[in-house]
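#lab-general

N.A. 3:47 PM
ok so I finally got the sequence cleaned up, no stray characters, all 336 residues accounted for. can someone with queue access submit it? mine expired

B.Y. 3:52 PM
send it over

N.A. 3:53 PM
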Amino acid sequence: MRRLALGLFSLALACNGESNNSSAASGSTGADLGSTSAPGSSSDSTGSSLPTTGASSGVVDTGDTGDTGASTGSVDASTTAVTGASSSGVSSDSSSGAEGSSSSTGEPPEAFAPASLVVLGDSISDGGGQPPFYYNLLRDDLAAKYGPGFKYVNNAQSGSETGALLGQAKGLPKQLPGPVAVVITSGGNDMKAALPQVLGGLDGPIKQKVAANVDAALAELLAPDRFGAGVLVRVFEGNIYDASDGQGNFSQGKCAFGKGLPAIPTDMYFDAWNLNIRDVVLARDQTAVDMHAHFYDHGYNNPPNWYASDCTHPSTLGHDQLRHLFYFEITGEMLP
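B.Y. 4:20 PM
back already:
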C-alpha cells in the first residue's frame, strides 16, 4: 500500500505540478475530458482527436522556461484589436449562446465565425512551458482568417484552480464583438490539491465541486447578452493530459518529480476526473476539447515529446499542437 500511495502521489504531481515560484513557470495541466484513444480508458468521450499534420518539427525540451523572452499575450480583462482580423459574424440569437455542436466533433455551430477570442484557465494559458505559446499563435491564426478588428482577451492565471474560473469570467469586458470563442484550460491543479482524497478513494465530493465550479463559469459566460445584445458565445473546454501516456513511470521520464517511485497505470485516474468535467460541458451544450486524447502517445515515452522537461507544460512543439487543436475545434478546418 505504501508503494501504491507513493506512485499515486507522483501521478498527482504529474497531473498538476503548478507552482508559483519565480524560477519556473507554474505547472497546470490543461483540463482533460477523457481520452478515447488511451488504452484502458473507461470514459465515453465523443471528442475527436485532431490529426497531427502541420505540426512543427523538432522538440524544444530545455526545461520549463515559462514566459522568458516571449509575451504571454495576457491583457488582464482588457481587449486587444489584432491587425488583420474581423468583427463580423455577430449573432442575432439572444438566448443562452449554447447552440450547435454538443461535443468535440470539430463541427462548430452553423455560421460560427468568431470575432473575439477569450482565454481563461491556468498556466497552460498563462506562460507555462516553452514559447511561442498556443494562445498567441491561435489569436494570430484566427485574426488572419477573420480579418481586421478581431478582439483578444486573456484572463488566465498561472496556478489557478477551477474555483477561479468564475472570477476570471466575471472580469471580462461587458461588450465584445461576436460571436465570441472562449478557450479554457483548467482542472489539473484541483486534482493535485485533492491528493489525500484521491489516495483514499474519497475524491467524489471534490470532483462534484470541480464540476460545480466549471458549471458556474459556463453559466456566467453563456448568460443572455453577456457580451452584448445577441452576441453568440461558444466555450471550448480543454481537459487534463498525461505526459506518461498512461504508464505512470514519471521517475523513468526524468521528470521534476517521482524519482525512485514505482510506475502505476494512470488512465483510470485521468478518465475519472476528465469525464466529470466533460459531462458538465456537454450538459451546457458546449464543446469538450480532448487534449488528453490528442497528446496521448506523445509524452516522454513516445518521442517526439510534446511536453517541456517538467512533464507538465507543453514544449514549443506541444504549444503548436494545442494551437492546431483549438483552431480545428473552433473553425472546423485544419491549419495549413
